[in-house]
Amino acid sequence: MSSNSDQEKRTIGAFDIRFIIGALLGVYGLILTLLGLFNATEAQLKRGDGLNINLWAGLGMLVVGLVFAVWARWRPMVVPPRKEEPAPPKD
Question: Would you kindly state where each structural domain of the chain is located, as residue ranges?
Answer without folding.
Answer: 18-79
